[in-house]
Amino acid sequence: MPGSCPCGRSNAKGQVLILDVCCGPCHAGVPAADAESLMRSRYSAFVTGNVPYLLATWHPSQRPATLALEVQAKWLGLEIRQHRSTGADTAEVEFVARFRLAGKAVRQHERSRFLREDGRWFYVDGEVL
Question: Which residues lie below 8 Å from residue 87, measured CB to CB, with a gap of 6+?
Fold first, then answer.
């Protein structure tokens, strides 16, 4: 489906949302509603090569100075396994991101930690599972 959001979020009818109404607003500066939405928008940013967004949504305490993406990576999908609040302004999202790199299938299974400051969610770090 042209314009489909890379994160794969669907509506109540099971139709995949388009980027412009799913992760696109976050990429344009609208704060993510929750940690799962930020996780999805970050996945979409990896797929679309949006490095400025990835850096901007990384908590300053953990943010790298630069970020180089694997331009040869072919992103295949995102599965959110769990999204849970761990406090008033903290949350965790467990996910599996699949991609192909140099002809090899890769599964990134991670539990990511998120923090909300001044009404905005940030990715802090993650534990590979």
Answer: none
